[in-house]
Amino acid sequence: MKKIGFIGLGNMGSKMCIHLIKAGHDVSGYDIDEKLTDRLLEHGIKKETSVSSIAKNKDIIITMLPNGSIVDEVLKNVISNTINKPIIIDCSTIEVDTSKKLYKLALSKKISLLDAPVSGGTIGAKNGTLTFMVGGNQSIFNEMSPILNIMGSKSVYCGETGSGQATKLCNNMLLAITMIGVAESFNMAKKLKLDLNILFDVVSTATGSCWAVNNYCPIPNVGPHSPADNNFLPGFSAKLMAKDLNLAVDAAKTSNSTINFGKKAKELFTKMAEGNNGDKDFSAIIEEIYNN
Ligand code: NAD
Description:
Layout: E1 3-7, H1 13-22, E2 26-30, H2 34-38, E3 46-47, H3 51-54, E4 60-63, H4 68-81, E5 87-90, H5 96-108, E6 113-115, E7 118-119, H6 121-127, E8 130-135, H7 138-151, E9 152-159, H8 163-191, H9 196-203, H10 211-216, H11 238-255, H12 260-274, H13 285-291
The structure holds nicotinamide-adenine-dinucleotide.
Nicotinamide-adenine-dinucleotide (NAD) binds next to helix 4, helix 6 and helix 11.
């Protein structure tokens, strides 16, 4: 049994920590929104009321926070207040460079830190089927993968620190671009008066097939059940996709990578995130394209 401190008990963290409690670990939780910790008391979480107290004497600290500046502030606080050098696992999606800076800071205090962002969304968090993309020291990854595999069904070691974040950004940029391609293709097919079920039948097994069309076809009643069949709610929101594309564009700048389609995807999803459809699944981008 490990003593685990879980910081950030929102849509994802609240569900992830329940799996750790059910697996028999001693889990303490902290969120600036106290109500969120209170809701987990019935599941057996221990309530902490500050970062400095949750940091004190844990074997592992897990963070699931909204963005890089909050992770930076919280983990600096953890690193300066901890007594027994826990292993830190940051599961938030943040800038590759922030992850690298925090890794160096932690290392200077002989504390290990893994960047371990996830894919699978809130459904994956609830069902314990997340995929973790992990960067950092490989032996620490090997030691921590049994913990990750309680919250997820797959954890992949991606390489040195920052590689988990970088892998996540490359994946999500590709997903965003392919979804825009699917939306344009189905939009044009509609205007060409094609039967969209027949188009799906062909495309989903032909050279145009991809995860976006095969699993999240953005046309209601076409393909398997997807957010389009439920007015695009719930799902992976356009706001979260815009956040990830913003991070991808930053990573492209620092690595001097050309991402013409990634930049265009950022522009389209940012516009969607700022408009009326920001909370809808990202596949609702098709509605933005129809409207233009
Ligand atoms: P969320 O906003 O629901 O949860 C974040 C929590 O952090 C909130 O409860 C907030 O009160 C808390 N928080 C903020 N500042 C804090 C602080 N200083 N100290 C303690 N707690 C603080 O977000 P989420 O949907 O759970 O996402 C968390 C992370 O996971 C994000 O980085 C997101 O990009 C990533 N992610 C989300 C999804 C998804 O589908 N929701 C999928 C993959 C990855």
